[in-house]
Amino acid sequence: MNSILLDTLNNKKTSRPPVWFMRQAGRILPSYQKLKKKYSFSQLMNDPKLASEVTLLPIRDLGVDAAILFSDILIVPEALGMGLEFTEKGPVFDNPLTKYKNPSDSLIKDSSKLSHVYNNIDKIIEVRDVNTPLIGFCGGPLTTFCFMFRGHVRDVTFNDAIKFLYSNPVESKKIIDSLVETSIEYAVNQVKHGIDCFQLFETYAGLIPVDMYKEIMLPASKKILNAVKDLNIPTIFFPKNFGNGLQYISKDICDYVSIDWHTNLFHARDIVNKEVGIQGNIDPRLLYSDYSNIENYLSKLIPFGSENQDWIINLGHGFLPDIDHKKAKFVVEWIKENDWKR
Ligand code: CP3
């Protein structure tokens, strides 16, 4: 495969940094919104033809250097029997773990609930351009754990989950263990079906102290990432709001670490182990500002890109739903057309 993303991941020199965006599949593209008028999110995810189409839309509409699988991180708890529904207001579980005294007893794995994703990967690989790499993913242990306790869709405090983590450490460990086991099976099967790269989305890493994340969650994240790496697929870890915890990210955890928008890129490069590459970290709100501001922001990235070959350009979190996709396209074109002084 002739891919600037894979070349970068394989330590080859390239003339510019590769670029893709978190939450690029779905959400902002008019072509996706058109499909959403006809089909529900679940329909789009469960039909290989539609799921592969949505996965590949950003390649055509934005010109990004990689596709990310159109799916969701909540598929894993669904496969543990939690009954997931994507409503107008967002995802809802039939059986949130707040319902149970010993929630781990309620988690019973049904691997068949994951098989539609593997069919989607097969289809994507069949229809994609041969030079389009496919990124697979799953949710990080803390982020997934948090959603499993969420009773109300609009609640993003995750107070119930965090309270449970502090008050029931033994039972919490059992839940994390079953998440890790299912996530490994899921990630390994994504690799077997042909993904080229894997990202672990740990969006809510910042909800607990760095030291607590390091002790309880990082070993769990590492197990999932290592299962993929053992099959020779490069791994990216996105621990959002991990702050100084970035100093604990080493090559035995992941190949690349994705930096959130709050952290300075040069500072991140300083504290992350030198063997680990950096992804990130454009502020998603930049895409609300005008073209000259966007250009100004991007120009300031040139010195970093000139010095660092092991850098993948991405956002510091996903696209916001109400941005103008033309601005995202402009960012990609600007990155492709500029001289990165390498
Ligand atoms: O990056 C991509 O575009 C690939 C697909 C993808 C989706 N969700 C599709 C989706 C990925 C990687 C995710 C990850 C995800 N899902 C995360 C971690 C990353 C992050 O953004 O923080 C989280 C926390 C979720 C959980 C989730 N799924 C929520 C809170 C929601 C509702 C709000 C929202 O994001 O739109 C979803 C639904 C969801 N997942 C949609 C899409 C395209 C919207 C469904 C729709 O179009 O109706």
Structural class of the helix and strand makeup? alpha/beta
* Helix and strand run: HHHHEHEEHEHHHEHEEHEHHEH
The proportion of strand residues reads 5-15%
What is bound: which ligands?
coproporphyrinogen III
Spatial strand order of the main sheet: 1-4-5-6-7-8-9
Cα shape:
globular
Query: How would you state the average pLDDT, rounded?
Result: 97
Give the % helix: 40-55%
Distance between the termini: 23 Å
Give Rg in angstroms.
19 Å
Count of discrete alpha- or pi-helical segments spanning 4 or more residues: 14
Uncertain runs: none
Largest sheet: 7 strands, parallel
Q: Using DSSP, what is the number of strands?
A: 9
Walkthrough of the structure:
The protein is α/β, with parallel strands linked by helices. It has helices at residues 4-9, 30-38, 41-46, 48-61, 75-82, 115-127, 141-148, 159-167, 169-192, 210-229, 265-271, 291-299, 302-307, 325-337; strands spanning 67-68, 84-87, 90-93, 134-139, 197-202, 235-239, 256-259, 277-282, 311-315. Helix 4 (48-61) crosses helix 6. The two termini are 23 Å apart. The model has no long low-confidence stretch (mean pLDDT 97). Coproporphyrinogen III is lined by residues 22-27, 36, 41, 68, 70-74, 86, 90-91, 137, 143, 201, 203, 318.
